Fold:
Amino acid sequence: MAKLSESTIQLKVSDGTQMQAFVARPEGHPKAGVLVFQEAFGVNGHIKKVTQRIAAEGYLAVAPELFHRTLAPGGTLAYPTGNDWSHIVPHINGITREAALADYQAAFYWLKEELKSGVIGCVGFCMGGSASFTANSGLPLKAAVSYYGSRIMQNFDLAQEQKGPLLLLWGGKDQSSPPEKLAELANALKGKDYIQAVFSEAAHAFNCDERAAYHAASAAVAWETTLAFFKTHLK
Structure:
């Protein structure tokens, strides 16, 4: 892995709140910036590792703590046991679209100032996959990648607001994104620059190597596809 530096920063959000974020910075001048949007468990070890992997490719990467209104700085949540999400749902429900966009803007403009450039993309996982879709509707992103962002299905009204090219990665065994919903999404995105890729043997959360759903082969191909997408559009 390339030499990296890591830090924790504090961002001022337009609603008056403060948001902590994890930053991974490559050696030398970054070639572009990438926002990394967390799963529903906070900016935990897995998300930090993803952020580091992106920085190792030459990007300045920042992972904002999207639960900062309901969770202490640096706080994370345990992966669910079975179908028990009771400790997580209040944090997800505590984020409005307006508040979310304010968070994304704070991280985006920090990156823009650091880079002296607007060449910025994003990638998100699960809840963060939906965050990528929402961020791409409100920010002038050059590329947006969504891993199994099934909450996108509740935000079809943002489809025609997508700014940058969009890469949508799905698990074929993920019941939260059935084929008929993906077809509806494709219809909503007509005229937009997007790619949908379905990994037939993968379930939801297939990229997270800390969870039982991890599918190594799908995760490896999805990651290489993500990097190729960034290489194409973040220049």
Observations:
- The longest strand covers residues 4-12.
- The two ends are 22 Å apart (CA to CA).
- The mean pLDDT is 97.
- Residues 4-75+90-233 form a domain with the Rossmann fold fold (CATH 3.40.50.1820).
